[in-house]
Amino acid sequence: xxxxxxxxxxxxxxxxxxxxxxxxxxxxxxxxxxxxxxxxxxxxxxxxxxxxxxxxxxxxxxxxxxxxxxxxxxxxxxxxxxxxxxxxxxxxxxxxxxxxxxxxxxxxxxxxxxxxxxxxxxxxxxxxxxxxxxxxxxxxxxxxxxxxxxxxxxxxxxxxxxxxxxxxxxxxxxxxxxxxxxxxxxxxxxxxxxxxxxxxxxxxxxxxxxxxxxxxxxxxxxxxxxxxxxxxxxxxxxxxxxxxxxxxxxxxxxxxxxxxxxxxxxxxxxxxxxxxxxxxxxxxxxxxxxxxxxxxxxxxxxxxxxxxxxxxxxxxxxxxxxxxxxxxxxxxxxxxxxxxxxxxxxxxxxxxxxxxxxxxxxxxxxxxxxxxxxxxxxxxxxxxxxxxxxxxxxxxxxxxxxxxxxxxxxxxxxxxxxxxxxxxxxxxxxxxxxxxxxxxxxxxxxxxxxxxxxxxxxxxxxxxxxxxxxxxxxxxxxxxxxxxxxxxxxxxxxxxxxxxxxxxxxxxxxx
Length: 511
Known about the structure:
There is one protein chain. It is rod-shaped, with a radius of gyration of 54 Å. It has 3 domains: about 15-170, Beta-Lactamase (2-Layer Sandwich), CATH 3.30.450; about 225-295; about 305-510, Heat Shock Protein 90. α12 packs across α13 and α15 crosses α16. It has helices spanning about 1-5, 10-60, 60-70, 70-85, 120, 160-170, 175-200, 205-225, 240-245, 260-265, 305-340, 345-370, 375-390, 410-425, 460-465, 480-490, and strands at about 90-95, 125-135, 135-145, 150-160, 225-230, 235-240, 275, 280-290, 295-300, 390-395, 435-440, 445-450, 495-500, 505-510. By secondary structure, it is of the alpha+beta class. It has 16 helices and 14 strands. About 25% of the residues are buried. The two termini are about 80 Å apart. It is a multi-pass membrane protein. Its EC number is 2.7.13.3. It is an enzyme of class 2 (transferase). GO terms for molecular function: ATP binding; phosphorelay sensor kinase activity. Its main location: membrane.
């Protein structure tokens, strides 16, 4: 039950619970180790103390002299008791090699036999041991007393009761406990701060919820049909599969320098901005993520839609042209009927056939010279559209396009339709004319559109190809020349302009 409730906690709750458990165990274990270390240090210090005291007394000439003179108890008992009281140890016993005590803390024990191990000292070695004697368990040191000839004539034993050591050790408990409690309190405060930060960053979600969210997030990134790029102050954080496809990005990490130029500069807030690359027409949206400094960029492919829109625009132009011609034909028909009613049939026939002959002659010439039906329809439609706008649009006699064309019908419509539209928009209003030439020989396909306008300088012409620049709106959203440049660059052709004879834009695509 406890485990089930724990797994229902948020990630922050589970992490903090585990941290509190680990910190508590560390503090408790550390305090225990500190107590054990303090005890071991106390025992080592006690051994060193009693060994030092016993050695000092054994090396004192007065000790050996008193044993030799036979008045060891009278001479040494006051001295050992004085030293014992000043050093706060349990006992100092001086004895003969046969264990007979000369001195003892309890005078009644003098003359009795010393309890404990003395064999190493009888062989001239000092040593320490833990032994239970008449006063209780103690840590004691035994040091031999030598005469002038180096013989062992007595032994000095000094000891500290383990009970006294335990009391000293217990006095350190409060300090160690206070330090441990302080460390635990500081750790818990830090853990609480971490918990609040984790709650903010994980939105209070559980680990399984975060895992499911990540799995869904990863699946969506791979399945979504829009390109998605996430940028932050350090560069590109994320690029999904569709974005790599649309922007021609290779596998592996992506840097800002790898992105197209229009994505390298931060520009949040962009909505449905059109950009033309060498292969595609892209719709870009950008938005900043609140409180994170990150920016999300979405990229949609509009290439096929743009082509369909171009074809639809051509059909619309043709439909408008047919509608205008129908309206004009109705006017002419009324005129012819009226002239017949007036009894002037010969003149009525002349009026009826004059415009029909001109129109039919243009249709026949274009149909014979141009083998692409879509291009014929486009030129006829643009001619009618230009006539409505009062612009003289002419297709030169040099225009000749065989069946084997370097561009598809849709590409021809895109290139020529946009060039003619730009020319009609840019021609001089006082002398509006547009001239179109489309030829193809063994070397290349050439499309030339001239108009009576002033044209664009080199920088403006380059900018128009790169960003869909528009001289009409000035807002950077024109696509005409950019779409033309896209088709031309795709086929390895050239796009140039010349202002020597009005404004002339030329497209050359090698075969």
